Records
---
Amino acid sequence: MAGKHIPRSKSRILLYGLSLFGFSVLFFLFCLSSNRQSARSQFLNLNVNVETSFVASLEDFLARKASRSTFVRDDTVSGEAGEVEVRKLDNRIYEMGMDRLYYGDPYYPVGLPLKVYVYNMPSKFTYDLLWLFRNTYKETDNLTSNGSPVHRLIEQHSIDYWLWADLIAPESERLLKTVVRVHRQEEADLFYIPFFTTISFFLMEKQQCKALYREALKWVQDQPAWKRSGGRDHILPVHHPWSFKTVRRFMKNAIWLLPDMDSTGNWYKPGQVYLEKDLILPYVPNLDLCDTKCLSETNPKRRTLLFFRGRLKRNAGGKIRSKIVSELSGADDVIIEEGTAGQGGKAAAQGGMRKSLFCMSPAGDTPSSARLFDAIVSGCIPVIISDELELPFEGILDYTKIALFVSSNDAVKPGWLLKFLRGISPAVIKEMQQNLAKYSRHFMYSSPAQPLGPEDLVWRMLAGKVVNIKLHLRRSQRVVEGSRSLCTCDCRRANTTSHTAPAL
């Protein structure tokens, strides 16, 4: 039976339709590919001049940015706010929140991007301290009691500079999309306190520093937003464990940006710090990033099994170091050196790490140290021997992909550690080295701050805390005195005597 004849006009229509469909599919695939490439370019920022040196970035910041008029009109209060101002702010926040909830913000109350209000604090808390560092950092004989260079320690803990410099930069110069600066307090999810606590601690005379701490405390506590929340939605950078120590108990409700939790009690009192409230941030690495080209050249030449350079005798949890040194002394393919973070120490540490498969990261006076992040950016697999260590961004990053965790008890057993390391297969080592190359970007502070860099991960982690902060804030406003309530993360020490602000 002959096939059914299709008229020529219908054939043309069918052919045209198929062609149009084909072009549509090709166009869709092209757009998808372009979007992916655009996203890739956005995260790689191949055409952006990125500065990762704290000193170089600060020089540029003070010369180029601080020379301009940096004043931005906002509603920071210059004097003490009374109950009326606090109530007005609370009402405005409530009304704006309801508008966001009912009329178009699908992410409220989490907030995407995160909205942060940066206090316009007097320059003695901000620019004056940056200039103090800038004018003295070349004084290489300025050392701590254990011989560490003071200005290098400040660089290691300079997270307050990197976060603040990015927040106050013009939007046209910023690359992060996870956080925006707002200029009205009722719009904010969180409030940033731009006080350089570490610079003031190390570079100011002791009594002068304590006086400045008390001034900063009073200034912040006078703000209506602080009075409204008791500081629960305020961010306080206290990354060095000695910084702000004399008054920080009066700001214990705030979100502290910390190097670790220090369960020894030497630096933070019980109830002051905990993971539900605070955030662990990485140290600024001492060493230069070993990039893709560097890794391809150094990885085949890593002949040392295990490397460590640093202080061999420490206090508190760091006593494990001397025990490990005794155990490893004289072992083949192991280098253990005494050293500090000075310029000569940097070159020695960088050379040693880039020649080694594994880099030991034991506890020091506190559970953490910059050495862990030096190893990561050097492509040297960290061997973490610190039982109480808390790690930065662990809600996002999986450290088991890039580091080995060894208990202190195992590390000091005769022969245990070297047998363990020598038993790791070349395939596992290669995989961990590849992961280190991917992870290193998460620990490199920079100007401008990069997507997926540490500044970006800070805001991603803090966004996850916002709903819980709002819950405890509202709850605290209505729970009556003496009521029996379930214990939560911010009432663990409800039976202890509450602190009051010091006389100023």
Note: The longest strand covers residues 304-310.
---
Amino acid sequence: MTDQLASVRYVVDDVPAAIAFYTTHLGFTVRMSAAPAFADVVRGPLRLLLSGPASSGARATPASLSAAGRNRIHLVVPDLDAEIRRLADAGVEFLGDVVAGPGGRQILLTDPAGNLVELFEAAAR
């Protein structure tokens, strides 16, 4: 049900490329596609709204805020090293190295439009 999903909108420059990235590499499924303007993809309780240049969501964004920001979606994975290997084998590039802290380990990557995605593995309890 849509009311049980947390929705995030990412403005992208190429909706089909974003769909391919999120479904191929990060385990999302397509709920609805009106490409090239818009798509709605989900992974668990996360609904990611991919808004292309022709979409109302992108047109409502002020030009001064058109660049991808520092905000990111946070995807929990059970084995960060395995995910890094799998994605690297598929040609996905990462931003920096794995960062570890008391809560776990994480690494950043970007989607084709430059939006940040964080892969996170929680520390053993």
Note: The longest helix spans residues 15-25.
---
Amino acid sequence: MPLMPPRHDGGDGRDLEANPIFSREPVRVPRYALPARETAPDVAYQMIHDELMLDGNARLNLATFVTTWAEPRARALMAECAAKNMIDKDEYPQTAELEERCVRMLARLWHAERPHEVMGCSTTGSSEAAMLAGLALKRRWQHRRRAEGAPEGRPNLVMGINVQVCWEKFADYFEVEPRYVPMEGDRYHLSPETAVERCDENTIGVVAVLGSTFDGSYEPVAGIAAALDDLRARTGLDVPVHVDGASGAMIAPFLDPDLEWDFRLPRVASINTSGHKYGLVMPGVGWALWRDAGALPDDLVFHVNYLGGDMPTFALNFSRPGAQVVAQYYNFLRLGFEGYRRVQRTCRDVATRLAGEIAGLGPFELITDGGEAPVFAFRVREEAAGFGVFDVSGALRERGWLVPAYTFPENRTDLEVLRIVVRNGFSHDLADLLLDDLRRILPRLERQPGPRRGARDAGVFAHGAETRHPRRPGRG
């Protein structure tokens, strides 16, 4: 059969062509329509494999918080459990049991006074967990307002403008007014004073972030809780706190044990974290925990039979594999407290050393140093007039490094930064290679008459550091 030239299909692009050296028929398949016939498995694999070579190298992706490396035994367990549907707890009771064990382990890790009374579940990630936590806050507020005979039509949620975009989605999807606290000067996240200023009788809760996606910093959860305690003493307003610990809730317990941010604070009603971030699991799994049944209204919970008993479930998603939950339990069992402490300590050590080395190069100024979450942001000094952060990001991408550059939100849109996320598997050796490449590109960038790249050239991989769009008064 003679080979035909590539065919264009009127706008959808060329068909996919199979290399005749390693392929069998068909030699051409459509890109955007189902093929008319079957494709040999080796041919289908090779076509897809070749296209995926154009993706970035996940290990060199310093933008994402998501785990990009796992032990072979963890991968094997995930493969064995890929076909198990997490929602079918009566059909896969032992997978459900491992999920329950993980919840109890996290409850103890986060200092729940009565771990056996904590309500919790796995999710597809922190975004779903945040949605669930927000829904619980809203429903609790609605119940209280109804009991008081008060209107319940204008709920609001107070949070820093640095929150992850999932909170913006929650507010939009579930009709809650987001009350964002803008950045001011050198304050890049929520403070106790700014949180309390925006609370009123319609506030369903305050979101405190442990590990801001913009710069890796912890918000002062204890200070926010204390300010809300004072607000209640003065006004009677009782506003709960949800801790978005997508990153920090799996770091602080191991590296900052004296930091009070969790269920030790009575005002903290719920906590979420990402198992697929510093929980060290491949994506996607998250966790949502509530202090007790009172923090999670029962009318949001569904009950299923499980090992002859009752297991409450609360989730937005239905069918999903049990693989990630099993991998989470494997990591808890495999590493234990000391193993997690060593992994997170290494990440922080790499982050703080790398931050210090970058600061020592001259053109850069640190915003944070990686001393809380192992994440740090830095900017180009004003005197380095020949280039900006977007030039640096673009030049590093030539070597395969994915380092996001972005602009901070209101009221610091003047601040353009680069951010580096250090995860398990990003070693001191890799940090040295990154430094070598930074040193290599700087002379070329410094010879430029001015910045050549801007925000429009930056791509869309800020991974949580997208600019919020506060709603104008009267818009919802």
Note: The radius of gyration is 24 Å.
